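Last lecture ended with a question: if I hand you only a sequence, what can you say about the shape of the protein? Today we answer it with a concrete record. The protein is thioredoxin-dependent peroxiredoxin. Below, first the input exactly as provided, then the predicted structure, then a couple of comments.
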Amino acid sequence: MPLEIGDDAPSVAAQNQDGDDVRLEFDEPTVLYFYPRDDTPGCSIEANQFQREYETYRDAGVDVYGVSTDGVDSHRSFCEAEGLEFDLLADPDGAVAAAFDVDVRGGAAARTTFFLADGKVQAVYESVDPDGHAREVLQDALEDGRATLPE
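The predicted structure:
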């Protein structure tokens, strides 16, 4: 079972698609979505839809990160091919997934999304349908007041 609403968010670190070290503390509103593999149909749909909503997420003060067990080079190629502006975190040893109790059977992370803020898990989405998920998470955050758009 992944972390639950109200649980403390773990501090995690991983390399992004550029090989830069990224450390996340989750004090600010953040979407962290786990996905199985780069360059697969469902993962491409999900990434493209987060990219489509990315400006609205940013306007609402929400950071977005994708995480899979693929490496830095795979993430770099995926970002370039899909035109992604947000970071994809490489988790080849499954350490980030383990910190969130996300299943990594067969070497691929289960499709799970977390909304985190103030150092806590605010929302959890399991068994995600990639199509429409980015909009769903954004709408939920705006409706629940976890994120707000400027006037």
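Comments.
1. The radius of gyration is 14 Å.
2. The CA atoms of residues 141 and 147 lie 5 Å apart.
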